[in-house]
Design goal:
The protein is built from 6 helices and no strands. By secondary structure, the protein is mostly helical. The longest helix has 26 residues, at 63-88. The chain is elongated, with a radius of gyration of 20 Å. The model has no long low-confidence stretch (mean pLDDT 86).
Length: 128
Amino acid sequence: MLKIVGIVVCEIFLYVLLKQYKPEYAVLAEAVGGAVLLFALSDELERVLDLFSGMFLEAGIGREYLSVLLKALGTALAVQFTADLCRDAGDSAAAAKVEFAGKVIIAASSIPLLEGVVGLITEFAGKL
């Protein structure tokens, strides 16, 4: 946790400093800080992925549903990060567009999950 705090404090310091003298580079510093933070969290992310994978295997749920979940989660995180960068750069219109695009991408990537649920419902209804 100290490593993460250190990365964030350095990123904030650099952001504030650059925003004062070179505002165009401040957003870039924030993006680089986010990438470094993601890299620092790679071990924890791997553990979370292993946990999800194990839970899905134990429950007998297909890997394609895990893939849908991970795509949606990854898309949501990337969209949030990008929208925040847009807002920090002063472009709230671009942030709204990024968020809308993310919602569409998540909805589109969730189609296999929806098809599976509808298939289970029709199968269950046919057995009644």
